[in-house]
Design goal:
The protein has 2 domains: about 325 residues, ABC transporter transmembrane region fold (Up-down Bundle); about 230 residues, P-loop containing nucleotide triphosphate hydrolases (Rossmann fold). About 65% of the residues lie in helices and about 10% in strands. Strands 8-9-10-5-11-12 form a 6-stranded mixed beta sheet, with helices on both faces. Strands 4-3-6-7 form a 4-stranded antiparallel beta sheet, covered by helices on one side. The protein has a two-stranded antiparallel sheet with strand order 1-2. α2 runs antiparallel to α10, α3 runs antiparallel to α5 and α6 packs antiparallel against α8. The chain starts with a helix and ends with a helix.
């Protein structure tokens, strides 16, 4: 995203916090007023000391009291300013993370298919934090800094325009230097953010698949890849820090010029007006020197804000790019699919993940209620993709899929998916108890129904052997084997009693004996239900009513197990290849 678009989006997100923005501005005005009045009274206090033995003690006392009151009021309003800015910054952070997380649930799966999970996680967590820190620093220091600069110039002009002009003509040097550095800082922070996201994505992938890494002894190779990514991040970070750190010494040099100009012009004015009996006293010079410090200090703070804000802008650009992604078409106004009978029909379906690479084409299918349909074929032929189309994880490019005569694109996704029970090769269990995982699809089920489903899935026995039975918490600590996790997923589906089933290598993690028992449970579960069975082991699909043999996205053969063997085609080759010695 362009910076103008990023700033516009930030302003839009700040609008709901307008009352606290106004309070922040008013507090900043009060802080600056207190800080401007204190030097004025300090100068008056100096002028109360006329010489040895000639001190206006009453006037000095009053001016010192005024300095104390101004400083106390400035401190109180500084506290209010910080509270207001904290509230704004962390409310914006909370809304950013909430919107980003909710957005992930609305994005089509193809978005996540093409991006590392770690990159997306970095945008939602780390980048959002950087945006908050940049906003917090900006609100706290930018308001008071700009107001202080404007206020000091105004007071100087009102008291002595000659000094104000000297300060005014030196000021652009600081602005030009800050702008030059800021333009380069933004680019370097963008590069740093991208490098950090790349490293995070790699670490996330390696940690999640550490067993695979160790199984293939890839530790050394991964260390080399990590070292390369880490080196890229190091270089990007050093470059970003270098450019951002140059702002402070540059502005300090300009500040020294301003202070010297005030001291020089003010000293000459004191000497010139001393004989005139008036005007520019030592106390006034003291006031101007304090104003010079107050005037130059915000430039240092603003330079830090600019560097931090460039980082926040780069991070905000990544989050807003995520939030700007096209969502899945809404089905809020679509009717719900009633409980299905199980008739499934596909007409001339075509689908591809990438437009220039066809996957499924001219796909036709007619499944009657209660049929068991097995889908077989070599890896990459489109079996799992077909399941994704049935569940409407993806929409077809051409043609249509119908359930009980309803085009699945015309009904809500939730009602469609409620009609399917799905067990995948990959198990998914959340960090919760066994009971909560089993009842995920039916939280209102009874204890008897839950136990019955677990028994049907051959999971009840091992659950009772767990430390707390059905109340045993599950997490990343390896309490269950992969096979046991698979049994829990199967029990979860059995508990829901869906009218249609999808089994995608559902018994791949089970031993032979348990697989046979679960196959018997599946046979009972599939009675009267339309079932789609994806399998590589062809011995598990012999009892299917219809076997679809896929190759390169097309159905090349269809029929029962015996019919396909008699034909002597591609299915026969696949089948006997698994039993070849």
């Amino acid at each position: 995203m362009k910076r103008r678009e990023i700033y516009a989006e930030l302003v839009r997100r700040l609008k709901p916090h307008l009352p606290f923005l106004i309070l922040s501005v008013l507090s900043a005005l009060a802080v600056v007023a207190g800080q401007l009045l204190a030097p004025f009274f300090a100068g008056k206090a100096v002028d109360c000391i006329l010489g040895k033995g000639a001190v206006d003690w009453e006037g000095l006392r009053l001016h010192l009291i005024a300095i104390g009151v101004c400083s106390a009021l400035a401190a109180v309003f500084q506290w209010i300013l910080s509270l207001s800015n904290n509230r704004i910054a962390y409310r914006v952070l909370s809304s950013l993370r909430k919107d980003a997380f909710c957005k992930l649930g609305k994005l089509p799966l193809k978005y996540l298919d093409n991006r590392p999970y770690g990159d997306t996680m970095s945008a939602v967590v780390s980048d959002a934090e950087s945006v908050s820190e940049g906003l917090l620093l900006g609100f706290t220091q930018l308001f008071t800094g700009v107001l202080t600069i404007a206020g000091v110039l105004g007071v100087m002009l009102a008291i002595r325009w000659e000094i104000a002009l000297a300060v005014f003509f030196i000021t652009p040097v600081s602005f030009l230097a800050a702008r030059f550095i800021a333009s380069r800082t933004y680019k370097t922070y963008r590069a740093q953010t991208a490098a950090r996201a790349d490293e995070t994505a790699f670490c996330d992938e390696m940690i999640a698949n550490l067993k695979v890494v160790k199984a293939f002894s890839r530790e050394a190779e991964n260390e080399a890849v990590f070292e390369k990514k880490n080196e890229a991040l190091r270089k990007a970070s050093l470059k970003a820090v270098f450019f951002s750190s140059t702002t402070n010494p540059v502005t300090r040099f300009v500040n020294a010029l301003v202070y010297a100009a005030v001291a020089l012009v003010g000293g000459l004015l004191v000497i010139r007006t001393a004989d005139m009996g008036a005007a520019f006293t030592v106390g006034t010079l003291t006031t101007f020197l304090q104003y010079a410090n107050q005037y130059t200090k915000p430039f240092n703070e603003i330079s830090e804000v600019v560097a931090e804000f460039q980082n926040a802008t780069a991070c905000a650009g990544r989050i807003f790019s995520l939030l700007a992604q096209e969502e899945e078409p809404s089905d809020r106004d679509a009717p719900a699919l009633p409980r299905a009978k199980g008739e499934v029909r596909a007409e001339d379906v075509a689908f591809s993940y990438e437009k220039d690479r066809e996957l499924i084409k001219h796909f036709d299918l007619d499944v009657k209620p209660g049929m068991r349909v097995a889908i077989v074929g070599p890896t990459g032929c489109g079996k799992t993709t077909l399941i994704g189309l049935l569940m409407r994880f993806y929409d077809v490019d051409e043609g249509a899929i119908f359930v009980d005569g309803h085009d699945i694109r015309t009904v809500t996704r939730a009602s469609l998916r409620e009609n399917f029970g799905m067990v995948l090769q990959e198990t998914w269990l959340k960090t919760a108890t066994v009971r909560e995982n089993l009842c995920l699809g039916r939280p209102d089920c009874t204890e008897e129904e839950m136990v019955e489903a677990a028994k049907a899935a051959k999971a009840h026995a091992f659950i009772l052997r767990l430390p707390k039975g059905y109340d045993t918490p599950l997490g990343p600590d390896g309490v269950l084997s992969e096979g046991q996790k698979q049994l829990l997923c199967i029990a979860r589906v059995m508990l829901c009693h869906p009218p249609m089933l999808i089994l995608d290598e559902a018994t791949s993690n089970l031993d032979t004996r348990t697989e046979k028992l679960v196959q018997e449970a599946f046979a009972a579960l599939m009675q009267g239900r339309t079932s789609f069975i994806v399998a590589h082991r062809l011995s598990t699909v012999r009892s299917a009513d219809l076997i679809l043999v896929m190759k390169s996205g097309k159905i090349v053969e269809r029929g029962t197990h015996e019919e396909l063997l008699r034909r002597g085609g591609f299915y026969r080759e696949l089948y006997f290849a698994q039993f070849a010695r």
